[in-house]
């Protein structure tokens, strides 16, 4: 990719964020109608029915042409209407059968990238096992957004205020990516996010599946808490916590935490993994003191920006409060109490 093209992409990302911040600040209704009704530039449309067909379609498109995939369109269409993205080829993944649905068997939950938010919310087998996913998705946008928005689109968008991304970080999800050259990569979700609206996806790479590990040998509980100004708003702060406890008591009277995941929304330039807090949790039984220390470590690790939702210090304090609440709720959901 040429330097000029990279600069253009970076510039678009910066402008996009400014517009996003302005939209949130003004409320969407106050957004100037002229901007929202801008003409979308002409593009060619393709709708492959399978991944094989998608590969053939991509091969037939000249290298210099800009390609964009469309999933739910919840984020892409507004950016196209604003003229921030003007692909010459729009590839619609809504007919691509290999990307749909989910399976829950063996050692993992596997969700196709074109599964909608609402597919997950309606799947009681999933929400019973992973209550943090229900907490998280039920607070994303409104019903229309949840009916259209997809699991893959939400992650591929790379928004630091994307709720699902940090919830998936807490859950230790792994993403499968079909590279343009045909190889299949598996990437831990926290390594997928490279920076502000930037991921490890190349322009013609497709996110195909999200895999969430299961471990029936452990007790688990999880939660996702979000501070928002109004229902459906993006997060002022968001905290996802997933905890795995030993099932059998080994020596002590309390069950120790054997695995911990913390994901943080609107905490920096990308969805963040609360590594310091996770480290403190592993090996100890849940307690008021431990969770106090962990939530302080979580707050220290964040680097939120000051905006109309609050200044940096306020947000850090909210990370502390929400992390502690999410830790307690996750423990309770595993059927345990604080020692
Ligand atoms: C009114 C409104 C409120 C919202 N509120 C929230 C909220 O509270 N919390 C929150 O987290 N989000 C919120 N969102 C964003 C929403 O979650 C979007 O649905 C999501 O960010 C994008 O998913 P999508 O399927 O619509 O993707 P699209 O908009 O279709 O695509 C987004 C980007 O991902 C790329 N892409 C999509 N699928 C793939 C794939 N399989 N492989 C490679 N690239 C792909 C596209 O090319 C595009 O660049 C809101 C959106 C709206 C419109």
Structure description:
With 339 residues, this protein is an alpha+beta fold. It contains 14 helices and 14 strands. Strand 6 and strand 7 (184-188) form a beta hairpin. The protein has helices spanning 3-26, 33-36, 51-60, 76-81, 117-122, 124-129, 131-137, 143-148, 151-157, 163-171, 189-192, 275-281, 288-301, 312-333, and strands at residues 44-46, 67-70, 89-92, 102-105, 108-112, 174-178, 184-188, 193-195, 198-199, 206-213, 218-227, 237-246, 257-265, 272-273. The chain has three domains: 42-96, 2-Layer Sandwich (Uridine Diphospho-n-acetylenolpyruvylglucosamine Reductase, domain 2); 97-213, Uridine Diphospho-n-acetylenolpyruvylglucosamine Reductase, domain 3 (2-Layer Sandwich); 218-333, CO dehydrogenase flavoprotein, C-terminal domain (Enolase-like, domain 1, 2-Layer Sandwich). Strands 4-5-10-6-7 form a five-stranded antiparallel beta sheet. Helix 7 (131-137) runs antiparallel to helix 10 (163-171), helix 12 (275-281) runs antiparallel to helix 13 and helix 13 (288-301) runs antiparallel to helix 14 (312-333). Helix content is 39%, strand content 22%. Flavin-adenine dinucleotide binds next to strand 2, helix 8, helix 9, helix 10 and strand 10.
